[in-house]
Description:
The protein is α/β, with parallel strands linked by helices. Helix content is 37%, strand content 12%.
Amino acid sequence: xxxxxxxxxxxPIALEKGGSRRRGGGGGGARPALVLLAGAALxxxxxxxxxPNRSLLDQLNVAHSADVAAWALGSESGLQNHARSMWQGxxxxxxxxxQFLSFQVCGDAAHQRLAVLSGxxxxxxxxxxxxxxxxxxxxxxxxxxxxxxxxxxxxxMRGQGVRVVAQVPEGARTVRFNLKQQWDALGSIRGAGxxxxxxxxxxxxxxxxxxxxxxxxxxxxxxxxxxxLQQPLLDDLLRVQEHLQSMSSSRLYNVxxxxxxxxxxxxxxxxxxTESGRRLDNCxxxxxTVGDSLQVHKVDPQVPLLLVTGQGSINEELANDxxxxxxxHGYKLVVWGDVPGIRGSKALPTAESxxxxxxxxxxxxxxxxxxxxxxxxxxxxxxxWNAGRFATYYNGGNIPLxxxxxxxxxxxxxxxxxxxxxxxxxxxxxAAVMSAIQVARMKAFCMFVGSSSSPMFRWLQDxxxxxxxxxxxxxxxxxxxxxxxxxxxxAKTLTPLYNNNGSILATFLRIDIPKLPHxxxxxxxxxxxxxxxxxxxxxxIDWGTPLPHALGMGYERxxxxxxxxxxxxxxxxxxKRTNDEFIDWILRQHNGLDYGPYTFLDQGALNQFYEDEIKxxxxxxxxxxxxYLPFREDARIVHMHGPKPNxxxxxxxxxxxxxxxxxxxxxxxxxxxxxxxEYRQFVPEWNVVRRAHRLxxxxxxxxxxxxxxxKPNKPN
Length: 716
């Protein structure tokens, strides 16, 4: 029951078909990655875990008999029954011309939750009143209000501008769509026209365009928060929660969803072999060493840890290793079967009801850890991150659900030192922040060096940037190291960062990112310099697989090593484990912070120390598009490496550029002018950018020519 359609045996065929079909318009057709996600959803079952031994494994291998009812999508009985409800919460007569949308749910508890969220989003998008579906509990279809507080849900949706009702008016003209067969679901529904009062659709999970969830993000999370359990499930939830809270003086508890079932292991092997769609390479990662993973993510071992596993017989070797790993780190395990009253509860007759209790326990936990490939775990991470609650995943890599529901804000961190106050760096930092929030939709963090009363600090705070005032322990030792030994060249001629101690400390500040508790829950964190801007929604899943083993850095001017540290994707568990050794190594080199062929300062140190992990594995240039190189339509991060906008303007006006031919090349052969036409929206108050854009426009029109007409040479 834990794995949904398509069945494991059918998965390769389904993937092959999905990969060979063309997608239409704006529809949400079947995509290979979505098929993988559908198979990844596991129902959290009531399994009792104790220290690894033969008795424990015998208990874990007990087969579970509850099965999910097969709701035949598009079948006459399903279409007739799924909109019926006895709930009388909203009995207002339909408004003149009111149109309705009903939808089915499918699969296990996690899939049904996703179906409800998707159905509400779809109703809002097509401007129809949503009809609450029946839910699947074991072999029965039950009313929505039997599980959730329908009155509360309807009121919350009304506050979001979406009306929710119990049933469709009798005699309403109905058109039915099976979304599995609709490549343009929205077009089909809108095409039904105003003459069709009721549109009925099959389960909408994974059949809507990803951008719809972004457009209706507030509605998605409002609907999730409004799905509050009804009695008697609510009573069981509160009883279990009280028991867990009573086990600690802090009244805190944590939850771990561990996946070590035989069926899960077999399915993971299939996914890793697939050559269609997005390949999953993190399904089983770190399961045997889950205790190590929880430790590096700072999951508190002093807080009781409720351990929940998936349905089906257990892979004994994997389960033994996982339990031993948890115990070696001192985690206080609490097993589901040990919770008083669970075994005799009449409210938990099915896998779905147990899964619901366990889902809401995880929502209310102090810290949650799961497997990002499992749908229930991914939804929990999404909801908890949105609420500002700690959630992590022990298997590393990406979160496949992000490909369909891109509501997992990427953590982005940059540094700022108030020695640059009043310079072009103020404006560039503002542009980076505004594009990060408005376009990239990231969660922004700033490691700020300076006064919290400064205008820039207050501006960043006002934009919602998470401010981190951090003073590194190695501060004095680094300054001493900067004056020790001989440099291989006069670095001051290559960078102004050697000019004062403040600038040296500011650029090295990024090496302490792995130490910051703000990032304990994340597997990957994006760092950039502040002289960048973001052109597209930033999603971890778009970085492809495999993700960086240590840190991802990209080419600088030429396609060669060493790499540029202005944009880095940090593998946080790896960087945490190696951070102390890295810092000690820096302070023992006695080279004046000049690393010879690896370049200098922190960039040189990163290239030399992590050479084995990064050399030959540069990130794509679309994630670090240099502004003086040719324009890239696929660029996601544009980096003003070298000359800044004020330097380009100076060249346009006087023919002089402190960065030699970079300005010439950036304007005549590079992407400066095209990028500036986008960049100006993020700092409309910066006169430099406005004037440079105007001159670029005149240059393109042939109505003006710059002072310098030298033929550009490619930078080297």
